[in-house]
UniProtKB/TrEMBL annotation:
Ranges of Basic and acidic residues composition bias in the record: 89-100
Record carries keyword Glycoprotein: no
GO MF, one annotated term: ubiquitin protein ligase activity
Disordered: region residues: 74-100
Top-level taxon of the source organism: Eukaryota
GO terms under cellular component: cytosol; RQC complex
Alphabetized UniProt keyword annotations: Metal-binding, Transferase, Ubl conjugation pathway, Zinc, Zinc-finger
Enzyme Commission number: 2.3.2.27
Any single biological process term in GO: rescue of stalled ribosome
Protein name: E3 ubiquitin-protein ligase listerin
Catalytic activity reported: S-ubiquitinyl-[E2 ubiquitin-conjugating enzyme]-L-cysteine + [acceptor protein]-L-lysine = [E2 ubiquitin-conjugating enzyme]-L-cysteine + N(6)-ubiquitinyl-[acceptor protein]-L-lysine
Amino acid sequence: MLVSWEKRAGLQGEEEATDNRDVFQELLADFWEGLGLIFVRYADNEDADRQALEGVAALLQVMRYPERVERKHDQKKKSVKISFSTPEDNEKSEVEGDVVEKPVQTESELNEKTSGSLQTQHFEDVVCQLAQLCLVHVNEKNSERHLVFLSLLLQSFHTPRVFTTLVELDEKILDIEPEDEVIKKNPAMQFLLERVVVWLGQEERSDTEHLVEMVFSSLYCCSQQETTRILNHITKMDVKWGIILQIIQRACTDPKTLKSCRDWLKGSVLGEQLLALTEELCQVGESPPRPASPSSSHSWTLISLVLSQHHNNEPLIGEVYMEKILERLHATLSETKGLSDAGNMEPLICFICDVASTFFSSVQDCLLLLSAEELLLTVFQLTAQDQTHTHLSDSLLGKLRKVCVAGVESLVKHSEYEVKEGGFLHSAALWVTKQLLTVSLDIKSLQVLILAVQSVVETIVSVCNQDSPLLVHFFTQLTPSQTEWTRIRKALPPQVNQPIHYSRK
């Protein structure tokens, strides 16, 4: 209906205007004025109902992108009804259907040219008025519900005019003026750096998803260079790692958004911060151990994400930083082999196992990296030694075995792998031979070593076959020379050298 009015008013193209153009322009102005008053009545309230605010944002989104909503409803076969109560009813507003869903919108969706969308300036006037109201309530009352509402509005209406309105209001109330000329020229960048970034940095804030969405709504109006500058600034702010995790996850939802964030993701600012985080997480030998916390959980999830996410066969972060992180994980696992009591280390080793397992399972050709092969070798060595030497629990040992299987599968399955000097299979074979030649093994230790080798062989066979060149090369490296066989026999425990006597009943 509104699109039809706009056509008759000449707002969709002069050729479509009718003789009653002025009438329809006035009709549109009256409509938006009335609708704006209704929206303001719901928004300009300290105790505004959250569901009502979400309903207003959803309705405005529907009006801005009508074709996209119709497309979704054709797929879901659901109708949508939004009804607002009158003040006299004193009833809560009601939103039915799936309009209040808050899915992450991709840049391609938000920037699509939708035929039949509303063109009237009155529409944007209403949005600017609501955005200003939100900012006033956030400034004066620190209203979280209005902050969420503002985020929802900006997801659909990230236009220069809306950001200019917000910046002008801030300058008027707070009497602030940016010194940086680049920031001055871009109201979205100014609002982001002076407002959103400050909200993100507040320690007491637990829910930051809507602020991260606000960051990306602002970035839609920024160049790639400005995007890199802003994200580098946020990274240096010492915000919670959970926020950096949310930003990276949000950047990966859409190819265009990912491309705009590429310089930040690949850059040294994020890379150095992630490396420092890995160093902090991998502190070995602490007594007592640090208890697990939501913060540490977010940190490990972040490390796992940046290692396992690849796009177009490229790592998400700079390859040099990915290798350094893997090297640090490998070094931490190696240190556990020399500890007299690994009990304090178990939570840390568990986290490393989770990260390594995800990395080996997710990333194609991941084991072409030397640091990844070294990490896999250390995991294998821990599984191939008796628990009396490693001091690892049964559950942790089970995790390590699964990581080893995942790594060997990835090694065999995803790359043109050859058994070469310095590679995993070559190094594992040499290490096993060395154990047999130089270490005094009891029966239990020998059994554990054999089972670890058997697991590697079975994994290779499960992916390839028994005639695989990999298996032939592995056994060639594993098989001792005649002289070494003699030394091994002499080094075996007395029980093994005794002849086996069979008794029949």
